[in-house]
């Protein structure tokens, strides 16, 4: 099952277009993603039984499948190659966890104003929690996942790296810094949800290419570890980390520029596009230093 948000309404994506979930469920589920995720089994059954009508989809009108989650977790340095390019000489013994404040979440075809010339890209697999998870064992973890999405963990590196310790949460929470979508794709749609190609590009320039097989802490371990501290709630998002190739690892850094469109994909989960403009604080001169 693939549940998207189309023109503000929950929509099941199928071959040839979308099925309005409210129509398909007699109004039981309409626009409220958290309500739908709280009753995910019921929604899954109802949507599986429906045959139409299937309407064409204009991707530009897709919004964030979960527009205002209650908790958004981010995992830092979770791919071996990215940890290495970031200067780690040994694999971390536990995940580096931060929050992306939920107001940064946006949709799969968003336009984002760059607050500075120091905004970086991070292609990521995003987990959507479907069932309250508290002290969940790894072997039960996938049962608590509603689905997977494509995500970008956009990161303003100057804010992130100012001060004596990194400010991951602030630097990664400007408006629009959490593009997600195009749909919540349920785990059964993937041949192997623990081995997915992912990456991003601007035009012909491939910026990142990796596989979730290289996650230091895979999805089940992340769900288990996080749920030992914070109960995970339906609709919560986990940005699982990014493979090598982020802009900061280049010399000079390769940051995002106004006018660029970033294309991000995760195998079998889809593709999202993020277009950038110069925000109020963007200093063009800084790009040329
Ligand atoms: Zn990240």
Quick summary:
By secondary structure, the chain is of the alpha+beta class.
Q: Stretches where pLDDT falls below 50 for ≥5 residues?
A: none
Q: How many domains is the backbone divided into?
A: 2
Q: Which class of the largest domain in CATH terms?
A: Alpha Beta
Q: Helix and strand string, N-terminal first?
A: EEEHHHEEHEEEEEEEHHEEEHEEEH
Give the tally of β-strands. 18
CATH superfamily of the largest domain: Fumarylacetoacetase-like, C-terminal domain
Q: From the 3D structure, determine the CATH topology of the largest domain.
A: Fumarylacetoacetate hydrolase, domain 2
Q: Which ligands accompany this protein?
A: zinc ion
| Architecture (CATH level 2) name of the largest domain | Alpha-Beta Complex
Indicate the overall shape.
globular
How far apart lie the N and C ends? 48 Å
User: Percentage of helical residues?
Assistant: 10-25%
Q: Mean of the pLDDT scores?
A: 94
Which sheet architecture does the biggest sheet show? 11 strands, mixed
Rg of Cα set: 18 Å
Helix/strand class: alpha+beta
Helical segment tally? 8
Fraction in beta strands: 25-35%
Can you offer a commentary on this structure?
It is a single chain. The chain is of the alpha+beta class. The chain has two domains: 2-57, no CATH class; 72-288, Fumarylacetoacetase-like, C-terminal domain (Fumarylacetoacetate hydrolase, domain 2). 16% of the residues lie in helices and 31% in strands. The chain is built from eight helices and 18 strands. The strands form three sheets. Strands 1, 2, 3, 4, 5, 6, 7, 10, 11, 13 and 16 form an eleven-stranded mixed β-sheet that branches. The protein has a five-stranded mixed β-sheet with strand order 8-18-17-14-15, with no helix packed on it. A hairpin with a 2-residue loop joins strand 14 and strand 15 (205-211). The N and C termini lie far apart (48 Å). The model has no long low-confidence stretch (mean pLDDT 94). Zinc ion is lined by residues 74, 122, 124, 153, 239, 241-242.
